[in-house]
Fold this sequence. Notes:
Chain A is an all-alpha fold. Chain A has helices at residues 2-28, 33-38, 44-54, 60-72, 86-121, 126-139, 143-157, 173-206, 210-217, 222-234, 236-260, 265-275, 278-306, 308-311.
Amino acid sequence: MRYLLYRLRRLAIVLAAVTFVTFLLVNVLPGDVAYEMAGMDSSEEEVQEIREELGLDRPVVIRYFEWVGGVFVGDWGTSFISSEDVWHAVTDRFPVSFELMLLAQILALAMAIPAGMASAFRPNGRADRIIGALAFASVSMPSFMTAILLIFVFALGLGWLPATGYEPLSSGLWANLKPMILPALSLALVEWTILMRTLRVEMISVLQENYIALARAKGMSNLRILWVHALRPSSFSMITLLGLQVARLLGGTIIIEQIFGIPGVGRLLIHAVYTRDFVVIQGCVTFFALAFVTANFLVDIAYAWLDPRVRTRGSHG
Amino acid sequence: MADVTSSGNADKDDGKPQIDRNALAIAMHRKSRSFGLYFWIPMIWLIIVAVACVFAPLWGLPPADEIDWAYIQSPPVEGHPLGTDNLGRDLLSRIIYGGRVSLTVGFAAPFIGVGLGLILGMIAGYYRGWADEVIGIMIDAWLAIPGLVILLLFSVVFGGSLFMVCLSLGLLFIPTAARITRAATLNYAGREFVLAAKAMGASDFRILRKEVFPNIIWPLIAFVLIDIPIAIVIEGALSFLGLSVKAPTPSWGGIIAEGREVLSTSPHIALYPTLVMFLTVLCFNLVGDAIRRRLADVREGAI
Amino acid sequence: MGEIILDVRNQRTAFATARGMLNAVDGVSFTLERGKTLGVVGESGSGKSVLSRSVMRLLPGNSVVPSDSKVILNGKDLTRLSETELRRLRGPEMAIVFQDPMTSLNPVLSIGKQIMEVLMFHMGMKKGPAKEKAVELLRAVGLPQPDVRVNQYPHQLSGGMRQRVAIAIAIACEPDLLIADEPTTALDVTVQAEILDLLQRMVKERNMAMILITHDMGVVAGRCDEVAVMYAGRIVEKAPVRELFNNTRMPYTAALLSSIPKVTDPPHRKLDAIEGRPPDLINPPQGCPFAPRCKFAGPECEEQVPPLEGPGAHQYACVKPLGEEVAA
Lengths: 317, 303, 328
Ligand SMILES: Nc1ncnc2c1ncn2[C@@H]1O[C@H](COP(=O)(O)OP(=O)(O)O)[C@@H](O)[C@H]1O
Ligand SMILES: [Mg+2]
């Protein structure tokens, strides 16, 4: 319990630090919004006027605290460029990014778990070597390259899946999933390797455990031993990693959403970067940091499910 | 070394073949640890790439931004061995000049990041207390933002010069390097030889430099080796988004992004740089892995 | 003569290691009848566990077993069976209880699940009846509140209770052969006797055959019919339990016997370990492997490995057996 409080305090400080530094960066460094808004050939007075209008002439610390106050009541500011409410802009697009990340993680796990098991079953065996080589090739292939190749083969070459686009869930599950497959796969093909390696290492040691020997002595099949007896005790590091990976995955969605024309938070951010829409950038970064922190809390909960020693702590010891 | 071939059918009651058998085991062990083809083949590719990029002006290629009006978006032809892009610029030349950006960033960024991480980690691990706490929070905060987002922020604020790209990319490598250094410093700062040096009145800086630094440099070098291909990949992503060095300076990610627009009609524009980049990153990974194993071997489990 | 359950003939098990071949079990033969218990005693490292795993055919990948080694269980030669066929025998025909109950139960599965899966896989039971049977088994092994315990996880049970669960798992499918590999070594002295009594009762009630492995001569005394003493991968003396205790022939056995803690000893006294160390199994010494540590050894002991032989049921592998000094 004390540890949990410590973690919470630390996470709060982290969030404050992230938002403050972001705020500083977008507000005090060169390339002031007011210049952008005033246009290329505007006078210093015009710029100053806009500044006052936006309240940019006041000290940055005060503005930061105002902004933080707003964040708690859902007022994340308004885009200088599209006049869109930032909170709505982010939350409207988040489900799309979330779906993409979720699909990517599911695909990555679907590749990593069987591959990790096959590798761990006979370390240095043939399967292990082949999977290891594939993983090596896979990490050497950033997601944007994978995306290009996937588009080239499955969209342009075979024509099985669309190269770009997004359909909301309301137009049907398959219609929604179809354009998501290639983007999710592009992300998953990078992410699976690290999950696989982590699972492999942990499972190799779990397979040496006495309870696995007992499961063999009980006449259980290899498949059952791997899936039922070894997988859960082997997946603790992998689950931690899933939480940490959220940061990488969020980064990955930015580029993948851009390539596949998916209207998610990443695309919002990139667009804001291109147009120097600082309020939106600030909102997106805050949102990403929040998402990361939340994901890592979910990981703690996943632990409890995986390990009865954590789950039943109340009833014993 | 003993006669290795005769040891296969060694008689176990005889003393001498035992020694042979051990010699065989040792020889096999050595062999498995020396640099093999998995090191040399990738190394050759990396040398080719490095030479091609470093001496780019010597190869008599057309300048990377020269437009050949006769060949716009052309497949490989005489004079343009890899064809031209959608503006009629020679693809081979662009890939080679683009490689200069990738290699510069690939080497500079990890050194910057690991250097800064080293300093922060040593401070945190040596002085502990509030310095440790503050640095810990900074690192946590750093890790809570996706790396690409940090880079986007920097590119917006500081613009896209090669130096800024190296610097901001280098910042990404601080957290892990700092953590490794901190752990190692904690470990060494309590050892007898450091305490002895302290007792003899050595300054903190001297202790860090003379006693702690030599002990953590190897893990960090291994770390730099892992980071090189990562830096190349991230620079690729950044330039793919058009947020690395400014056009018309070519970069691999940028060429791939341009090629993506015409992927259906001229796939070669995106696929050649993709292939080159993939091979280069793969080879860096393979070479780094081999060297890392060697280092771990020489220093027995220090990594 | 009762029905012969297990017949082990010339079992050899070697491991390929970095230093060379390690002969962990080196030509072991014995038979076991229904309802009987064979005690296997030996110092740590003498090959007891490897022998038990050789019988179960549960050996690691670096093991080598020559083709003339045979393990015949209920008339079936296990060395000729495929992995799938063996799997069908593990549980219904042979089962094992491991030494350390702290690590031999899966921490993430409830104990009920761990019993039920044997019943469901081997007996084709459905979930409901399997659970009822699991509760019944837990009751049979003397676990208090079996209907509550069945849903608990191993970490919620004490060591002794876990070993009871392990026994419940082992007897779930009524095996003909039960191997208990040092079942009480990791337990408190107070529960050791309880667990041994439980095992003995289960063997009687279900008319099984048991191999009781231990390094403690005291354990085999009242609980076995026959005892095999192992040293360096070989059986060095084998006899009905009474005969072995009353008429010990092999100096190694005598040394083991003298290391039994006596009632008069202060509690927790460290056992007298036998002086010297067991031989290197990769480069074993010439002749009798015990000779370098043996008080009675003479030059003749180092000539060759003595074979296991003797009159009737009492066999021993010794050139200068005890009780024959006068003759010698
Ligand atoms: N997988 C293995 N690889 C190599 N040697 C092993 C292996 N398993 C056991 N051994 C060796 O076999 C010998 C007998 O071990 P074991 O049967 O466990 O002894 P114990 O009588 O204490 O049960 C020991 O010397 C041990 O080191
Ligand atoms: Mg043992």
